Amino acid sequence: MSMFEAILSTRSVPTGIGLGLRARFIDRVARGAADGVPTFVELCPENYMHRGGRSPARLEEVAQRFPVICHGLMMSLGSTDPFEDAYFAQLRAFLDRYDPPWHSDHLCWSGLHGAVLHDLLPVPFTSAVARRVASRVVEARDRLERPMAVENISWYAELGASQLDEVEFLVEILERADCGLLLDVNNVFVNAQNHGFDPLAWLERIPLERVVQLHVAGHESWEEDLIIDTHGATVRDEVYELMAWVIERTGPRPVLLERDSNIPPLPELLDEIRRLDGVYQQALSRWEADRSGGSADVRTAKAVGHA
Asked: Which residues, 6 or more positions from 293, have their beta carbon under 8 angstroms from its beta carbon?
C-alpha cells in the first residue's frame, strides 16, 4: 500500500456526484435548495479564504449540509517560484476548518516572478520538470499535513521541447510524489480532439488506483477545428462515457460537475447532476457485477443512451 493509500484509508471520502459551489447559487444551497441531489460540494479555497462578511457563515451552513472537498487554483505547481509562506498558512487554516480528505491543484503553472497570469498553463513534459513538480507536491503535502492530488489540465500547445508524452509525464509525478490523481475526463476528451489521440487509449495507460476523484464539464467549439475547456456548456455524451469507463474500473469515486460560465439556474444544474448520477449508477452496477463474477457486457456507450 502506498503512503497515499494508507493515509486515505483512515479518512471518510464522499462518493457519487458533487456540485461545484459557485457564488451565483451559494445562498440557495445554504438554505437547502440542493438537498438530496449532490452527495458533496467542491469549493476553491482561494475564492473564500480572504472573504469576510456573510461568506464564512454561508460556507458553514453549506458544510453542515454536505461533505466538502477542496480544489485549489493558485498553487502553480509547475512554477519555479518558491512557495509563499503566507499563502500556505492561510490555505492550511482554511483546510483545517473544513477538513476535506485531500487537497488538489492543477498540474500547471500560473505565475512567475510574483506575477499571476490567471490561467492554467502547461509545462514541458520532461523528467527534469516531473522531478521538480513532484518535489513541490511533496512540499505542499508536508506544509498542509494532508494528502495531495494533482489534476490533468487541458492544453492547446506544447510549452518547450518535451521528452515524454503526457501520460508518461503524469505517471512519473504520481509515483515520485506518491500522490493522487484528480482525473478530469473532459480535459482528456478536449486534448484528444485537439491533438488527435484516442482518449480511451490515454486512460488505459493511467494507474487508475491513483484516481481519487473525477471532474466532468462542458466545452465549446472555437473556430472549426479547436474546442476549448470553458466549463460553460452542458456535458457532452462522450465525456459521460469516459467518466463511466473509469467508474466501471475503479468503483465508487467522487465525481464533480463543474460549471464556471454561462451558469444556468440551480434547478437545471441539479437536473444535470441527476442525469450524471444515472450514468454513474449504471457504471457502478457494472463494476459490482464484475467484482461478483457477473456479466459486464453492457458497455459504456449504451449506458449514456439509457440514462
From this structure: none
Cα separation values, 297 from 243, 245, 246, Å: 17, 12, 15
Question: What are 91's three cell numbers?
Answer: 490555505
Alpha carbons 265 and 121: distance in angstroms, whole number: 30
Residue 199 contacts residue 242 (beta carbons within 8 Å)? yes
Alpha helix locations (H) across the chain? 3-8, 26-30, 55-65, 85-98, 127-144, 166-177, 185-195, 199-204, 237-250, 266-291, 300-306
**CA 238/CA 232 separation, integer angstroms:** 16
Q: What is the DSSP letter of 78?
A: T
* Element containing residue 84 per DSSP (H, E): none
Name the residue type at position 155: W
**How far is 203 from 198, CA to CA, in rounded Å?**
9
Dist. CA 307–CA 301, nearest whole Å: 11
Q: Domains of the chain by range and CATH?
A: 3-306 (3.20.20.150)
The span from the CA of 135 to the CA of 137, in Å, is 5
Amino acid letter for position 241:
E
- CA neighbours within 13 Å on the CB side: how many for 118? 1
Question: Do 156 and 193 contact (CB within 8 A), yes or no?
Answer: no
* Bridging pattern class, strands 180-184 and 68-71: unpaired
Question: What is the CB neighbour count within 10 angstroms for residue 119?
Answer: 9
Q: What is the pTM of this model?
A: 0.91
pLDDT score, position 26: 95
User: Which three three-digit cell numbers place residue 20?
Assistant: 461545484
Q: Which residue has the cell 513534459?
A: 125
Question: What does the pLDDT look like over 244-294, one tens digit per residue?
Answer: 999 999 999 999 999 887 889 999 999 999 999 999 999 999 999 999 886
